[in-house]
């Protein structure tokens, strides 16, 4: 068969940029990463990266293969204020994860745990996409501590529901999960965490 | 080089039995699994399995590569009664995971998420080693629901502390973690979970 001599198509170039972006974000962290350095590592023109993804933020979301834009979801969950925040967060996340778009989430979670690069990406994701908005929009002390504690509960919920598939959490209605787990998240965001644990 | 003609040594036989046990427990579940069927699958005499591991319970712990025997730890954590249970559980688990014996825990967690067999094993582990004792020793309604919710929090803590390594959870003192996270676990075991979420 004759070779066509074509250059790599746009989808292959796009994937090459995303692979370079994942490695770069994982190594440098979100703040230090630049579109210029990612373009250099992918051996493409920075203008092409701009053309495909528009901004560092959107490139990061694409590299994480996020089904939704957390920059849009988080503020709408936080907007009504601190009351009921925990229930809204659980309901929103489970709704996304259960949806068709969220089906690749198990794959993301698997890769997070099996590859160091993915674990770094997940860490950058929380720091950049979750902690940032939470600190800006919620007027609480120790926002990083609160958000990382909320992360333990949300990530664990995802792992037990979709990967370990432990009942009754695996098949529970999202509204039930929100009622059971929401108050734990609520406490992480609004309670005095250094108060002594409940006594008899 | 001349072949020695030796039969497989005890450590290779032991590993062969453990591999057969992991596959069998994952496929059949703990309750249905038998030492006889595991021996058949490993092509060894059931007496040899008895000799190496003594009981189905100890074979399961060895197959899970558990650094400690949950059958010994869980009752001692539950024994003082429901008060302060959450704090004790977090303090005990973090203590085990942080220890030298617990270092392979990240490996276990990685394999849980990257392989279906390991996820099934983890599910069996919770059902057999955690839910059983909790139901027997703690006089509460819906014990499986409570234990699976506590599992979401504990598994998520391990994932965020040791794999994603998100700060400040990653470096926090075990006593701080117990104070911050213990009350969430306490609530799962002792509160009315179907009460409405807190309102303004």
Notes on the protein architecture:
- The structure is a homodimer of 200-residue chains.
- With 200 residues, chain A is mostly helical.
- In chain A, 70% of the residues lie in helices and 0% in strands.
- The radius of gyration of chain A is 19 Å and the shape is globular.
- The mean pLDDT of chain A is 84.
- At the A-B interface, helix 7, helix 8, helix 9 and helix 10 of A face helix 7, helix 8, helix 9 and helix 10 of B.
List keywords for this structure.
homodimer, 200 residues, mainly alpha
Q: Sketch the major β-sheet of chain A.
A: none
Arithmetic mean of pLDDT of chain A: 84
Which word captures the global form of chain A? Answer: globular
Q: Largest interface, with Cβ-Cβ < 8 Å?
A: A-B, 52 and 52 residues
Unreliable residue stretches of chain A: none
Describe the protein's topology:
The structure is a homodimer of 200-residue chains.
Chain A (H helix, E strand, L loop, with lengths): L9 H23 L2 H8 L3 H8 L2 H8 L6 H9 L6 H14 L6 H10 L1 H22 L5 H22 L9 H17 L10
Helix pairs in contact in A: 1-2, 1-4, 1-8, 2-3, 3-4, 5-6, 5-8, 6-10, 7-8, 8-9, 9-10
């Amino acid at each position: 068969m004759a070779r066509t001599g074509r250059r790599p198509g746009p989808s292959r170039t796009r994937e090459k940029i995303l692979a370079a972006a994942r490695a770069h974000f994982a190594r440098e962290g979100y703040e230090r990463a630049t579109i210029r350095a990612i373009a250099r590592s992918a051996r493409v023109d920075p203008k092409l990266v701009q053309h495909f993804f528009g901004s560092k933020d959107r490139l990061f979301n694409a590299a994480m293969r996020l089904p939704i834009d957390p920059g849009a979801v988080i503020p709408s969950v936080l907007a009504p204020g601190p009351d009921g925040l925990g229930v809204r967060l659980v309901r929103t996340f489970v709704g996304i994860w259960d949806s068709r778009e969220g089906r690749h989430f198990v794959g993301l979670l698997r890769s997070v745990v099996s590859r160091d690069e993915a674990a770094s990406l997940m860490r950058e994701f929380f720091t950049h996409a979750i902690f940032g908005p939470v600190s800006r929009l919620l007027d609480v002390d120790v926002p990083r501590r609160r958000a990382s504690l909320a992360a333990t509960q949300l990530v664990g919920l995802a792992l037990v529901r979709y990967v370990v598939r432990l009942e009754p959490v695996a098949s529970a209605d999202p509204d039930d999960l929100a009622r059971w787990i929401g108050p734990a998240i609520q406490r992480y965001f609004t309670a005095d965490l250094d108060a002594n644990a409940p006594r008899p």
